[in-house]
Known about the structure:
With 373 residues, this protein is an alpha/beta fold. The protein contains 15 helices and 16 strands.
Amino acid sequence: MKILELTNYSAGGCGVWVRVKQEAELLAERGHEVKVFSSNITKGSKIKAPQTEMLGKVEIIRFPAIKLGGESFLNWKFKEEALKFKPDIIFAHMYRHLHTTKALKLAEQIKCKIFLVTHAPFARDESRSSLAKNTVSFYDNFIGPNSLRKFDKVIAITRWEMPHLTRLGLPKEKIKYIPNGIPAKFFSALQKEKEENKILFFGRISPIKNIEVVIRAIHSIKDKKIVLEIAGPAEADYLKKLEKIISEKNLNKRVIFSNAIYSLQKKISKFDSAKIYTLPSKSEGMPQTLIEAMARGKIVIASDNPGSKDIINDGKNGFLFKNNDEKELGKKLNDILEMKKRDLKKIKLNARKTAEEFSWDRIIVKIEELIKE
């Protein structure tokens, strides 16, 4: 089959792109002809990505784009190139975006199946301005319901967002739960790194991740030798804010920053080097790094946003703390560091078992079953 993947970004640190990239590569490996269309903007950078690029057997074509608001609301034109390709299947990624609306008209014109992958946009209200909230409300009330019903299926990447979709009037039979996956190597790679006395945050260093909560919690941990490593691409203004807190708390020797890592093996090694993985985000759709850490058998602790609560059963396969509550985070970190090894081992095994549900080996089978229906 000829498959077209549509997504805003195909360069830079983008969680949606992580899904699209792996999905496209695996579908191509299974004999499908796959192309990715996106904007030419590199997320988190002013650098323009190349117009074309080959990702194994997958061709990426990028188009000039205009930012219309926020970080990811873009306008880019791909219709002419899509008509040349004439796909049998279109995967349009991200609900409430212009390219998904355009994709519906395209699918109708060439008479192909079209699936929307939502990417769980319903948990991000805290990070939106008043104008953005009003725009989202207008879309969900007057545009979204009619648009959603036109897709052959709407793919929810989390279970918690499914009630949101039904409240928008989407019939349950139109919804298919297929979460993001993680590469099989997360389960098969041997641990080469020695576990250090370290708490790790891995991902975009941006306000939505609420990293200052962990920094403040570090100050209250009894073990004064434990360090916090923050690894990932940083937004300049937010990085300055974090550095100021670190200086004020006199934590310069206990909080370290590392560069972004894109190599899979290096990413695995980074997870392996930590004793605890933390994800303090204000909101998450489906927290990819959390699952990756669990796949490596890490003790994880996350804020109780919908995305993390969908994965963690507090005290069973990881830990949750009240969103934005540095005191509770500090207390739970102290409790974890004082736990007996046998109790920690049980939680690590449960974490890994949970993560196995998200292996791409399983996920790609579900996607192929969907496109063959």
